[in-house]
Amino acid sequence: MSPLWTPLFILALAIAGFFAARSRALSTAGGNPRLMHSLPRVYGMNALIWTAAPALLLLAALTLAQPMMQERQVMSALPDSLTASAGETSLAMAEICRIAGGIATAIENRSLSKDAALQSSDIGTLRDALTGAGIAVTPETSAEILNGAQDWYAYDRRAALLHAVLALGAAALGLVWALRRARKDVNARSTVERGILLLLMGAASVAILTTVGIVFSMLFEAYHFFQQYSWREFFFSTNWNPRFQGGSDLGMLPLLWGTLYISLIALIGAVPIGLFAAIYLSEYASRRMRSIAKPLIEVLAGVPTIVYGLFALITVGPILRDYFAAPMGLGNSASSVMTAGLVMGIMLIPFVSSLSDDIINAVPQSLRDGSYGLGSTQSETVRHVVLPAALPGIVGAILLAASRAIGETMIVVLGAGAAAKLSMNPFEAMTTVTVKIVSQLTGDTDFASPETLVAFALGLTLFVLTLILNVIALYVVRKYREQYE
Amino acid sequence: MTQNRAKIRTEGVNVHYGATHAIKDVTLDIPDKTVTAFIGPSGCGKSTFLRCINRMNDTIDVCRVTGIITIDGEDIYDRRIDPVQLRRKVGMVFQKPNPFPKSIYDNVAYGPKIHGLARNRAELDEIVEKALRRGAIWDEVKDRLSEPGTGLSGGQQQRLCIARAIATEPEILLMDEPCSALDPIATSQVEELIYELKNNYSVVIVTHSMQQAARVSQKTAFFHLGTMVEYGETDEIFTNPRDERTENYITGRIG
C-alpha cells in the first residue's frame, strides 16, 4: 500500500464528516438555521478540521520521527567494526537503506518473494535471491549489512501499517467528537475561527523557521570551516587561490572587493536613471503615457539574469574593450568590472524606478498643491517637497537594489569573469563572492575540506552584509519617518 | 461701508470638468482690502471658482476654463502670463492644513527662497519672523523653529500655512474652507487672523459655515448648482436676501 493512501483516506473521511456534521446540526434545529448558534456549514467545517487536522499532523510527526528511531535500532544491531567512526557508520547505513529499498521494489514487482527476502537466514541464499531480483550486492557485502537491510525493510513495513492505523484512529476519534458537537447550541464558529488562526500562524512560522534553519545550517558549516582554517587568514588575507590538493589561500578580501566594486558601479548607473524615470512617470507623464511606459520598464525586471549575462558577454564587454579600455591602455579583457557593473545597473533600473514610483505616488497631493500655491515650478516642487517626503521609501528601494546587486551571480560570471583580483582598474576582470561560492561547490565535493566549506563562510559573510544593509535601511526609514510625520 | 476699487474682476467664467459643467457664467468684482466669502451647499462650485483665481485648476488635466478673469486689469489667462508668477501674487490656503515635511522655519522660508526674496540669511530670518507674526503664531513657535511643522496641532498647522502663504508677500489670499478641519478654539483663532488680514490683502474665503461668513467677511457671494445666485454686502445677504434660493439656504431649508 502506497503511503499516499492514508492521507487521502483521511481527507475523504473529513469531507464525509463535513456533510454529516452539517446535516446533523441542521436536524437538531429541526431544519431551521435561524435556531442554530452558527451557520450549518460552519459545523461542517468544524468536523472537517477535527477529522483532518489532528490525524494529518500525527501522521506527519510519525513519518518524520520514524527514520530516526529506526536508524538507532538498526545501528545498535551492527557490530562495532562497522560503526568505528561517524563516516563509516553513515556509509554502512546508506548501504543498508539502498538494499532495503531494492528489496521493497523487488517485492512490489514480484521478482522476489517476501519469504525469500525475510525468512532466509542463510546469507548465501539471501545474496543469490537478491542478485536474482536485480539488486546489486557484491560478495564483499557483509552478512551484518544484509541482516540490517532485512531488519530495515521489516521495520519499514511495520511502521507504515502502524502509522496508518494510528492516523486513521485519530481521524475517527476527531470525527466522532465533532459529530457529537454538531448540535444547534454549540459554538462551532469560534472553533473554526481558531482553526483558521492556527493555520495562518503556521504559515507565518514556516517562513520564519526556514530562515532560522538556513542561518543555522550556514553557521554550522562555517564553524567547521573555521576549525580547519584560520579566520584571520580568511577575513584579512588578500590572496584567493584554492587548491583541491590542499594548502590553499582562502582570503576573502579580493572577492569582497569585487562584489562591492561591481555593486557600486551598478548602483551609480541604476539609481539616478531609475529615480529620474520614476519622477518622470509619476510627476510629468500623462496617464496614457504612464500606462504604457510603466509596464515596459517593468519588463526589464522579468528578464532572466542569464540573458543579461549573455548581453554582457557578447555586446557590452567587447564594446567597452574596443572603444574604451584598449584605446586608453587600461587592459584588453572583455570581461571586466565595468561590463558586469553596467549590465547589472540596467537590471536594477526597474527595481529602483518601480518602487520609487509607487512611493512618490503615495506623497499626498495636498503637499504638491501647497507648493504650487506658493508659486513654485514643477521641478522645484519635486526637488523641495516631493522627494524629501518620499526619501525614506526611496532609500529603502535603493538598499533593496543594493541587496540584489550583492547577491547577483550570473551577470558576474559572464560579464566580469572568475579571476579573483584586487585592483582599482574598472576594466580588469574580477569576481565576486557569489561566483566563488558556486565554483567551490560545483563538481565532486566532499563536505569536509576547507576548500568546499569556505563556501559556507562566504555565504554567511554575504548574509551578514545584506543583513547590515537591511538594518541600515530600517534605521534610515524610521529616523526620517519620525521627523516627517 | 466704503467701496474699494475692484481687485479681481471676472466676466462670464465657465468651467468644465470633462463633460461636467461645473461653473456657469459667473461675473463678479472682488474689491481690494476686504474679505469676500463664497458660500453655498457642497458641490456648488465655489471651491472650483476659487481655484480659477490662481489657476490651480491648470494642474488638473480634464479641467477647462473659459471667460475672462483679470487682476488689477490684467487678464490672468492671457498666454503671456506665467501661472507660477501669478501664484506668487495670489497665495492660497487649503482646506486641510498641509505643512511640508520640513522644519517650521523652512516651511515659511520655502516661498521666499524659491522666489529669491532674501539676499542673505538675516533678511530671510526677518521675512520668516514677520510672516509668522502676521500669521499670529510667532509666540507659539519662536523657540522651536527647527522642529517639524507636522508636529504642530491642527490649528497651529493651519496658521503656519497662512504664514507660509503670507511670506511670499502676495496681494490676494485665497482660502479654501480653512477651518473645516479645525476645532472651535482653533477656528476662532484663525477667524480672528482672517479679519486682521484684510488690512493688507484682499482675502477670498470659501466656507461652509454661514456664521463664519457673517463673522469675517464684508462681501458674500452665494453659489448654487454652479451659478452665482447672489452677490452683495454680507449684512445685506444675511438680513435681506433678494433671491429665494439664498433665503432658503441661509435659513437652512436647502444645503
CATH architecture of chain B: 3-Layer(aba) Sandwich
- CATH top-level class of the largest domain in chain A: Mainly Alpha
Largest sheet of chain A: 2 strands, antiparallel
Secondary-structure element pattern of chain A, one letter each: HHHHHHHHEEHHHHHHHHH
Overall number of strands of chain B: 10
The name of the CATH architecture of the largest domain in chain A is Orthogonal Bundle
The number of distinct β-strands of chain A equals 2
CATH topology of the largest domain in chain A: MetI-like fold
Total domain modules of chain B: 1
Span of the ends, CA to CA of chain B: 30 Å
Work out the radius of gyration of chain A: 32 Å
Instruction: Describe the largest sheet of chain B.
Output: 6 strands, mixed
GO molecular function, one term (chain A): phosphate transmembrane transporter activity
Subcellular location (chain A): Cell inner membrane; Cell membrane
Membrane topology (chain A): Multi-pass membrane protein
Function (chain A): Part of the binding-protein-dependent transport system for phosphate; probably responsible for the translocation of the substrate across the membrane.
Description:
The complex is a heterodimer of chains A (485) and B (255). Chain A is an all-alpha fold and 485 residues long. Chain A folds into 2 domains: 5-186, no CATH class; 235-484, MetI-like (MetI-like fold, Orthogonal Bundle). Chain A is 77% helix and 1% strand. Chain A has a two-stranded antiparallel sheet. Chain A is flat. The model of chain A has no long low-confidence stretch (mean pLDDT 86). With 255 residues, chain B is α/β, with parallel strands linked by helices. Chain B has one domain (6-250): Rossmann fold (3-Layer(aba) Sandwich). The interface between A and B is medium-sized, with 23 and 30 residues.
Topology, element by element:
The complex is a heterodimer of chains A (485) and B (255).
Chain A: H1 5-28, H2 40-77, H3 86-108, H4 114-118, H5 123-132, H6 143-180, H7 188-228, H8 231-236, E1 240-241, E2 249-250, H9 253-284, H10 287-302, H11 305-328, H12 337-362, H13 365-373, H14 378-407, H15 410-416, H16 433-441, H17 450-484
Antiparallel strand pairs in A: 1-2
Helix pairs in contact in A: 1-2, 1-6, 2-6, 2-7, 3-6, 7-17, 9-12, 9-14, 10-12, 11-12, 11-15, 12-14, 12-15, 13-14, 14-17, 16-17
Chain B: E1 6-17, E2 20-31, E3 35-39, H1 46-53, E4 63-71, E5 74-75, H2 83-89, E6 90-93, H3 104-115, H4 121-134, H5 138-141, H6 154-166, E7 172-176, H7 184-197, E8 202-206, H8 210-216, E9 219-224, E10 227-233, H9 234-239, H10 244-250
Parallel strand pairs in B: 3-8, 3-9, 6-7, 7-8
Antiparallel strand pairs in B: 1-2, 1-4, 4-5, 9-10
